[in-house]
Amino acid sequence: MRTLTIECSSSVGSVALSENNCPIISRSFENPRGRGTMLFSVLEEVIAESKSFDLVLVGTGPGSYNALRSSIAAAWGIAKARHIPVSGISSVFGYDAPEYFVVGDARSNQCFFGYVSEGRLTSPLELLSPETASTRLIEGVPIYSTGASLLGAEILHPSATTLARHAAQAGPTEPIYLKPPHITPSRPKTT
Fold this sequence. Notes:
This protein is an alpha/beta fold.
């Protein structure tokens, strides 16, 4: 099965084409706060090179509110136009390690926190203070962060190529929001 995978939950996005878990094409791009327009040009390139695929898989976060909505909408559009299925998978599975912790900045002195072992999330993702999250770490297990310097984590972005390896765990394409979106109010106009 050929799978087109889109991952845009962090400041570096990626698009990949794989066949039976073997990568064929992989592209990364800057995706600052989900406002990067590169997603669509990279998708256009990968689709032109790939010609055909049987499934669209998309990372569902947690992560950038704008980027998750854009990448999920793109995945739905591609799948609908080609009459193929679309599935979603948590972006926390986008790291190439047998066991790890993943953390990301959730603002307001909170982080999202998860522990992945042997390709499975061991419990639901949680919103924790960095102090509380630090008490849950296991010595020797790597910690990956999606961009913020938290808990001494290595800053590493989820990869579409790695997400594709977990396609069997895919489900709905609903974005993972751990709390309501943070919306910055407009500044009043000054005359």
